[in-house]
Amino acid sequence: MQRIIFVVGNSRSGTTMMGRVIGGHKDVFTFSELHFFEQLWAPTPEPAKLDTHEARDILSMLIAYQRDGYYASHKPWQYLDESEKIIRAIDGPITAPSVFQAYINHESAAHGKTIGCDQTPRNLYYLDELLSLYPEARFVVMVRDPRDVLLSQKNRWKRRKLGAKGTPWWNALRTWAGYHPETISLLWRSGVAAGDRFKDDPRVCVLRFEDLLTNPESELTRVCEAMYLDYDDSMLDVPRVGSSHQQDQQNKRGLDPGAAGRWRAGGLTKAELAICQRLTREHMQRHGYTIEPVDASLISLAWYRVTWVFKSGLALALNIWRIRNLKESIRRRLSH
Fold it and tell me: Among positive and negative, which fits the CA dihedral 107, 113, 116, 117?
């Protein structure tokens, strides 16, 4: 079984950047966010066997996500022949996990690589199942200061103007609707708790975003050792793109130390900071983040509580198509 590396973490915690870094290794091909687990298949303890048509349909959509982009108008029927070829190469029962593994093997080999890397952040909530389904897999769990995550999520809807020109306008609306300090803080808390459950598993490497930026060589060496990769400092030669705060800088390479602690320069209200620190305090302290004194007015705090109901409903309505099992998805995010 070909090894897979999963890079997981809360959204805007550096998963895409880490995927690029790992993808700079000579043996690794980093995929786009595949969104296989939860959207194309809801993980179960005992995966059911699939018939050829079911496997082909799942696989062709997975290929479409990778080849055409997640937000594209997908035409999965274009990949049916290729899907059938991949399915025929599966040795053993045809299940959703074996279909996923077969595609990782196929696409990685097509790029001359022997290891595939999936950088879908939400896989964080399926670590238990993934560790069981893919015992040879390795996992990088990214953790970032929740205040920086909050600021990045607040400005994320601007990505279309900052370099992500292929992002549709409705995704900017969806991203705007998804932002609320209580929602993002609760998701950060549950996500960090989900990753911390497996911090002692030798297959899991927990990495603070800030540590990678300030000590890139030593931290990447640690990651490579955990992933069974040979360290190569050229892996750090990545483009400075994907920020929610500044224009993509394709001509600049390397990690940007200025991305750590950006919230201190402004952009969040006192109420947003107070809400974030109140909800994430325990987990912040566990990961070495300092709680700062914030004096927020009761009126501003009450306003955010009122708007939470509206924003949560709107966000749910705009994101429901991305979730195969809504009840299970909510349970996983609230159970940690």
Answer: negative
> How many angstroms separate the CA atoms of 294 and 280, rounded?
14
DSSP H or E stretch at residue 7: strand 4-9
**Nearest to residue 178, comparing CAs of 19, 12, 6, 325?**
12
Q: How far apart are CA 222 and CA 205, in angstroms?
A: 8
Q: Which of 1, 11, 2 is nearest to 209 (CA)?
A: 11
CA distance 32 to 242: 13
Q: What domains are there in the chain, each with its CATH number?
A: 4-27+114-334 (3.40.50.300)
C-alpha neighbours within 13 Å on the C-beta side of residue 75? 1
pLDDT in tens, the chain (336 residues): 578 999 999 999 999 999 999 999 999 999 999 999 988 998 877 899 999 999 999 999 999 999 998 877 789 999 999 999 999 989 899 999 999 999 999 999 999 999 999 999 999 999 999 999 999 999 999 999 999 999 999 988 676 665 556 666 666 777 777 889 999 999 999 999 999 999 999 999 999 999 999 999 999 999 999 999 999 999 999 988 766 666 657 778 889 898 999 999 999 999 999 999 999 999 999 999 999 999 999 999 999 999 988 888 877 776 766 666 666 676 777 766
Contact between 121 and 204 under an 8 Å Cβ cutoff? The reply is no
